[in-house]
Automatic annotation (TrEMBL):
It comes from Natrinema ejinorense. The chain crosses the membrane at residues 12-29, 104-129, 141-164, 197-218, 255-281, 301-324. This is ABC transporter permease. GO terms for biological process: transmembrane transport. PROSITE patterns: ABC_TM1. The keyword Zinc does not apply. PANTHER family: DIPEPTIDE TRANSPORT SYSTEM PERMEASE PROTEIN DPPB-RELATED.
């Protein structure tokens, strides 16, 4: 129980620290927040600057002329009440924007995580059992090469290769957007809409999979080779246990543990890289709106996306710690049960 309380306390402290640092950095940006937004709106419309300024100041969560301490206290109070503020870029409440954006980002991350885990697990195990063969050597080279490719380069290549291909089957994967157009498929939890959403999420997910599976597969290979040399595996072979049981119960279960925690902790990288990746595909998830917020100096939306990303990373780290001791019977919940 003390361990769980300790980890919960660390998670809450991390959330508070990230929100505080992000707020101070956003507040320290040169120039007035209100003036910057007013200039942007006035340039694209014929509304009087005074009217725009009054409208903006009425929607801010804090007084723009207040000190950083007063603004911080006001912001944290509103945040604890569930108010994330108003976005001037999207002309909507931040909570409403993120409520719609988070599921799209989670869809891509789920597809990418499941894809990387399945490919890395199977490929790494086969490479270990066929150590030194042409299959092992070829996949080691391919895995090393794909790992060195930046995810955004893979995204551009996928768009060129798949998104604009003349092959009929390749036209299934649209290179822009996160869902089918409303005039083609009515939004809702229907087979047609879900299938359309999966099609739009395929290319962003493949960008993660292509550039991330190699390192995990090589890690699985190394872990499997090390596990194959353990005494308990040799004893199981001498006892005449079926090779399938040895591979699954003895080798696979122990070799997959580092892969499992690495996969969970890679969620932070996926969320961070989504800022660029979702802009490339014009995929309106959390990363897309973070980029738009930073570009327009939209502090409420910027802070909201920071908070969402931090919460996801903290939850993933907490889950990795808790479940690691469940998967590995050699480790008990406690200070020695941490997954990293």
């Amino acid at each position: 129980m003390n361990w769980y309380l300790k980890r919960t306390g660390q998670a809450l402290f991390t959330l508070w620290a990230v929100v505080t640092i992000a707020f101070v950095l956003a507040w320290s940006v040169p120039g007035s927040l209100v003036d910057h937004i007013v200039d942007q709106i006035v340039q694209s419309s014929s509304i009087e600057p005074a009217v725009v300024r009054e409208s903006i100041e009425s929607r801010l969560m804090f007084d723009p002329d207040a000190s950083v301490t007063e603004a911080y206290v006001t912001y944290m109070t509103e945040l604890l009440n569930g108010n994330l503020g108003y976005s001037f870029v999207a002309s909507d409440d931040v909570s409403t924007i993120l409520a719609e954006a988070v599921p799209w980002t989670l869809l891509v991350m789920s597809l990418a995580t499941l894809g990387m885990f399945a490919i890395s697990l199977a490929l790494g195990a086969i490479m270990a059992y066929r150590e030194g063969s042409w299959f092992d050597i070829a996949n080691t080279i391919v895995g090393t090469v794909t790992t060195s490719i930046p995810y955004f380069v893979a995204a551009f290549l996928l768009i060129l290769w798949i998104g604009y291909s003349d092959a009929p089957i390749l036209e299934l994967f649209p290179p822009r957007g996160q869902k089918p157009p409303a005039h083609e498929v009515e939004p809702g939890f229907t087979v047609a809409f879900v299938w359309g959403a999966l099609r739009h999420a395929t290319l962003p997910a493949l960008s993660y999979i292509v550039t991330g599976y190699g390192l995990l597969a090589l890690s699985m290979r190394g872990n499997s080779i090390q596990t194959l040399g353990e005494d308990y595996v040799r004893v199981a072979e001498l006892r005449g246990l079926p090779s399938r049981r040895i591979a699954l119960r003895y080798v696979g279960r122990n070799a997959v543990l580092p892969l499992y925690t690495s996969l969970l902790l890679s969620i932070g990288f996926m969320l961070g890289s989504s800022v660029v990746l979702e802009q490339i595909f014009q995929y309106r998830g959390v990363g897309y709106w973070m980029y738009e917020a930073i570009d327009a100096n939209d502090v409420p939306l910027m802070m909201g996306t920071f908070i969402v990303i931090t919460v996801c990373v903290v939850i993933a780290t907490f889950v990795a710690d808790v479940t690691y001791s469940m998967l590995d019977p050699r480790i008990k919940s406690g200070d020695q049960g941490e997954a990293y």
